[in-house]
Design goal:
The protein is mostly helical. It has six helices and no strands.
Length: 127
Amino acid sequence: MAGMKKDEFELLSVEELRQKYGLTASNRPVVRLNSDRVPEALRHLIPFAEIWGIKDDITRDDMARTAPKEAIEDLKRIVERNEDLLDDWLAGPEAAGPSFSEEYLAFSAMRMAADFAGSCGLDTRRK
């Protein structure tokens, strides 16, 4: 920004960031996953991870806030039904990093979307 020193930065609200950078569900990134990099027991969840596996918190939260109630219910249900399998992978050896596959990140983001939707009661506030 004009008049700012090299080591200074502008602090914006979530809404200001959303508007400035276009971080919305309508222009979310396309996520394509390689099934070979996903544990076999979780491969049936790849379509959900490709929809909900948005790494950016602002865009992912906007997606959850604007999704139909049925989509949120489905997301929460598939994550809950596969909780142990997700734990095995996402809290397993790959969690130590230092780098993470796009698949690992997408499944982690999908889980964060389900957690966010549940903590905000998004499935209960919609018709």
